[in-house]
């Protein structure tokens, strides 16, 4: 290969990298990590089904990206679930980095008179072994 071809390939590679990196960074900032989203969308619905929660019992469920730091033992993205029999309470589930186990977080959002508040007490669909998403954050 002559020097001109190597120079052109090098310049094109640098241009692609300079263009792709900022676009990828902006995408992750706006939409969250696609890998974390994939993991949440794969494991949490299976977990909920094992617990006996069918689509008929769930009003809404999808991946959400928190805007604050969470427990370092879990992937950053959450999976949000609202049950039909408790429509004012939002449950959050996370996936552990080690073993990819699904875990319900103790903090739940409850909508009351248009105001959202965090509830950590017992609710209809609370699990006994929930973990705090706000622990282990440094």
Q: How do the strands and helices of this protein lay out in sequence?
A:
Elements: H1 3-31, H2 34-50, E1 58-64, E2 78-83, E3 86-95, E4 102-104, E5 108-112, E6 115-119
Antiparallel strand pairs: 1-2, 2-3, 3-4, 3-5, 5-6
Could you describe the 3D structure shown?
This protein is an alpha+beta fold and 138 residues long. It contains 2 helices and 6 strands. It has helices at residues 3-31, 34-50; strands at 58-64, 78-83, 86-95, 102-104, 108-112, 115-119. A hairpin with a 6-residue loop joins strand 3 and strand 4 (102-104). The protein is elongated, with a radius of gyration of 21 Å. The protein starts with a helix and ends in a 19-residue tail after the last strand. The model has no long low-confidence stretch (mean pLDDT 87).
- Content-based structural category: alpha+beta
| Helix percentage range | 25-40%
Number of alpha- plus pi-helical segments: 2
Q: What's the alpha carbon Rg, rounded to whole Å? A: 21 Å
Major beta sheet summary:
6 strands, antiparallel
Distance between the termini: 53 Å
Shape: elongated
Overall pLDDT score: 87
User: Total number of β-strand segments?
Assistant: 6
Low-confidence stretches: none
Q: Strand fraction band?
A: 25-35%
Question: What is the H/E order?
Answer: HHEEEEEE
Keywords:
single chain, 138 residues, alpha+beta, six-stranded antiparallel β-sheet, 2 helices, elongated
Concise summary:
The chain contains 2 helices and 6 strands, in the order ααββββββ.
């Amino acid at each position: 290969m002559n020097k001109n071809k190597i120079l052109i390939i090098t310049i094109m590679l640098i241009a692609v990298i300079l263009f792709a990196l900022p676009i990828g960074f902006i995408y992750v900032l706006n939409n969250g990590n696609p890998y974390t989203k994939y993991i949440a969308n794969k494991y949490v619905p299976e977990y909920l089904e094992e617990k006996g929660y069918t689509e008929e019992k769930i009003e809404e469920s999808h991946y959400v990206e928190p805007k604050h730091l969470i427990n370092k033992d879990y992937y950053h993205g959450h999976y949000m679930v609202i049950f039909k029999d408790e429509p004012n309470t939002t449950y959050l589930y996370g996936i552990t980095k080690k073993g990819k186990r699904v875990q319900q977080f103790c903090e739940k959002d409850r909508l009351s008179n248009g105001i959202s508040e965090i509830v950590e007490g017992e609710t209809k669909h609370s699990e006994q072994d929930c973990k705090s998403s706000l622990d282990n954050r440094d």
